[in-house]
Amino acid sequence: MTRIAVLASHGGSILQAVMDACGSGEINANVVAVISNNSGSLALSRARGAGIATRHLSGRTHPQPAALDAAICATLQEARPDWVLLAGYMKKLGPQTLDAFQGRILNVHPALLPKHGGRGFYGRRVHQAVVDAGDAETGATVHLVDADYDTGPVLAQVRVPVNAGDRAEDVEQRVQCAERQLVVDTLAGIIDGRVKAGGGAL
Fold this sequence. Notes:
By secondary structure, the protein is of the alpha/beta class. It has six helices and seven strands. It has helices spanning 13-24, 42-49, 65-79, 95-100, 124-133, 168-192, and strands at residues 2-7, 29-36, 53-56, 83-86, 105-109, 137-144, 154-161. It has a seven-stranded mixed beta sheet with strand order 3-2-1-4-5-6-7, sandwiched between helices.
């Protein structure tokens, strides 16, 4: 069965959606490890509650970036995932991890890339940028991860309307619902061959 490792920084709602979909058989896979840069993240609590191996790895545990990169890479290699999912992970992966899992790291971004992506575009900042730009629609994107922010090949997108008078919070709530299903659908599609990602050890 396909093995998925997840990196998450905060609430872990996408992680929960993936775990639920694996449990129901919607995704033919198991989540085998969860890494967070936040020792108090709900993502780690969700994973522990499901009996999944967890690690807190951050600048606090490894102050030197190269050491942190090596620790993340080693933890992932020990878990032997076919795919690595960045689900609300707020840090940039280092070169060792990127090289070891090239073509097998997925990220979900809460906008229609290439719009509103790149360094500094994360969380509610993305949705505020959408509102400030007067966009009529936004959405979410699943893409392969490369060495820069939000620039890897796009695998799937979902579009979400922006209504007149929407605040960033309104857009955020709508996108979060859509992106959870997008991630589940994309992972399921990669595993059963409907979505061509390339590079996965499947």
